[in-house]
Amino acid sequence: MKEEIRQKRFALLLAAKDSDYVKKVYGGYFNVFVATFGEPGESWDLYRVVEGDFPDLDHLDDYDGFVVSGSPYDAYGNDYWILQLCLLLQTLDTMHKKVLGICFGHQVLCRALGGKVGRALSGWDIGLREITLMKDLLPSDILEDVDEIPPALSLIECHQDEVWEVPTGAEVVAFSNKTGVEMFIISDHILGIQGHPEYTMDILYNLIDRLVDNNSIEQSFAEEAKSTFENSAPDRKYAPDRKYWEHICKSFLKGRLIDASSQETLNIL
Fold it and tell me: What are the φ and ψ backbone dihedral angles of 213, each rounded to 5 degrees?
């Protein structure tokens, strides 16, 4: 009798409310994340933690991995849902569950597990940024099959907070000329990435415009941020090195190798 293969199951812990633009164009951030990190045959669930919607603690073991999204909130804030999220992340760490943190998710993972986060000392970082990977420190199951991966990768950034100090036992595995901790790992089950592998140019541009409208940034800074993308990836929807970031994230979450040279985005949008 053939053994039935269990369907992989993942959860997105969404720490931001859907913008009007993302709802209209993509149907919500959930679709954006699943299109980037998901694959056919998997099951993905959505928990809007920013609204107090959390997975049942009794069912955490049903999941193969979790992704924590970005957020306009401060990871060092004391909103009740942020404190609840920190407790959940501590539980997942104890269970040795795979957790991928993106931007706010990267920062709140750090906070929950004993690190320090706060306002970026050099101010906002918005646009396309070159990230230097310390490949020797990355787990071999992420990069072993991608010898052609360059030592530096471009990544979309949009943040004004940053990790100041990683938790005990964590390794900093990527940095930039703007941010000292662009990526960190703990063992083989925690990965934090400061940038946004899931973002497209239009999502970033819309976010920049909203930051101008609510007086978070100046128009001149907004134009400078947009120019970083236009100069590096003219007439393109995706950042030039997106396929490598997808590879890194998927390989981490799924615990097996993926051929980055043939990586394709799951078309569910």
Answer: -60, -35
Active site (catalytic) residues: 103, 196, 198
Q: Cα(123)–Cα(10) distance, rounded to whole angstroms?
A: 34
pTM: predicted TM-score of the whole model, two decimal places: 0.90
Matching residue, tokens 């960190």? 184
Task: For strands 98-102 and 116-119, give the pairing.
Answer: unpaired
202: amino acid identity, one letter: D
Question: Is 104 strand, coil or helix?
Answer: helix
Which residues touch 69 (CB under 8 Å, ≥6 apart)? 12, 13, 14, 15, 16, 29, 33, 102, 103, 104, 105
CB-based contacts of 127: which residues, under 8 Å, 6+ apart?
Answer: 156, 157, 204, 224, 225, 226, 227, 228, 229
Rounded to whole angstroms, the Cα distance separating 260 from 99 reads 21
Whether 205 and 226 have beta carbons less than 8 Å apart is answered as yes
Tokens of 168: 């005990």
- Rounded to whole angstroms, the Cα distance separating 94 from 20 reads 37
Q: What is the pLDDT of residues 232-257, one digit of tens each?
A: 655 467 778 898 999 889 989 987 53
